[in-house]
Amino acid sequence: MPINDRCFVNRDSLFRQLSYIKKNFLAVHLSDAVDIITSKKRMKQPILSLTFDDGFQNNYDVVFPMLKELRLPATIFPVTGFVDTDYTIWYCTLNKAFAESKKKSIIWMHRKYDLRSMRERTEACMNIKNLLKKMPHTVLVQEVDKITTLLGYRHSIKVSKKSPYRILNSRDMKTMQKSGLIEFGAHTHTHSILSLLKDREKEFEIRTSIDHIKGITGRDCGVFSYPNGEQGDFEEQTQSILAKNGIKRAFSMMRGPNYADTSPLSFRRYGIEGNMNYYKFLANIHHMIWIKRTLSSFGEHLLGRKHSKRPDQPGEDKGPLS
After folding, report:
1. Cβ atoms < 10 Å from Cβ of 1
2. Where does 11-86+167-276 sit in CATH, by number?
3. 237 or 33, which is more confident?
4. Contact 270/252 with Cβ under 8 angstroms?
């Protein structure tokens, strides 16, 4: 039984979500969406772009037939270092190792992790991944090797052609590209969190991934997706390197809508997770969850200002919010 990973969405749920998008949105490639937003052109339908990070083989085997049936365009961001190989991204390696290990427990970083049940394995895997994300990529890779050894693997873990963790091959990427429905963007070469790298390492990750995408598709690569993509996972130096290498639009995983004045190198997106039910999916893509969180944060800010007033301070605080 595989480790439950929120990044993977059930096939039937995905088709239901895509069908709703087809009926209620104008779906366009990311590059076209940005042009529409910045031009401030009024559209009869709300604009939406579908994106798939990491570039798993199931993007071709499972998702692509759905997109063809519904005539929906999408943008895929493969991790180019694993294209045409039997290896996969570090977090998928851990998922596979934790799911298949015969060990009942392991000790890593002076902490014991029980593995007697699938719930314990999933919890251990998620906790360890969160800790690894804070490490520079070279250290992360070394630690992943240590963990997989602790779990009983003596060699590098390979994935089969039918594995959900397998990354796309270039032949299928070319087929998708020729359909006109799929465009490809860069997502680094090894899925490194860029803010944790030295400048020369950032340059390598960005430049190499761009070159690989162009080499496979035959087209210039002008869009980029930040690995992990949360606040602090990229900074101005990363954006400068992207711009120097011809990237005009970059996409984070910070939630919220995009407007004409949104920075072109830090566009926002919504993540659709595997544990998200249909109604939460609807609330997400219609900005309702973002609006609720924004209002909640605003309310907490107001309450914080009220509570921070001195007891002897008279009257109402009419100062501006900071």
Report:
1. 8
2. 3.20.20.370
3. 237
4. no
Reported as type and span, the H/E element at residue 127 is helix 118-132
Instruction: Tally Cβ neighbours within 10 Å of residue 198.
Output: 9
pLDDT, residue 233, reads 96
CA–CA separation, 228 and 195 (whole Å) = 11
> What is the residue type of 35?
D
Instruction: Report d(CA 169, CA 183) in Å as an integer.
Output: 15
Instruction: Kindly state the DSSP code that residue 135 receives in the 8-state scheme.
Output: S
Query: Would the pLDDT of 315 be above 50?
Result: no
Q: Do 252 and 226 contact (CB within 8 A), yes or no? A: yes
- The half-sphere exposure of 164 on its side-chain side, counting CA atoms within 13 A, is 15
For residue 43, what are the CA distances in angstroms to 35, 37, 166?
12, 10, 38
8 A C-beta contact, residue 115 and residue 103: yes
Residue 3's nearest CA partner among 200, 163, 207 is: 163
CB atoms near residue 252 (< 10 Å): 20
Residues in a beta bridge with 56: 167
Task: Please state the length of the chain.
Answer: 322
In the chain, domain spans: 11-86+167-276, 90-150, 278-312
Beta 111-114 vs 249-251: how paired, if at all? unpaired
Longest distance between any two alpha carbons in the chain, whole Å = 73
User: What residues are paired with 53 via a beta bridge?
Assistant: 77
DSSP of 8-66, one letter per residue? Answer: ---HHHHHHHHHHHHHHSEE--HHHHHHHHHHT---SS-EE--EEEE-BTHIIIIIHHH
Mean pLDDT of the chain: 90
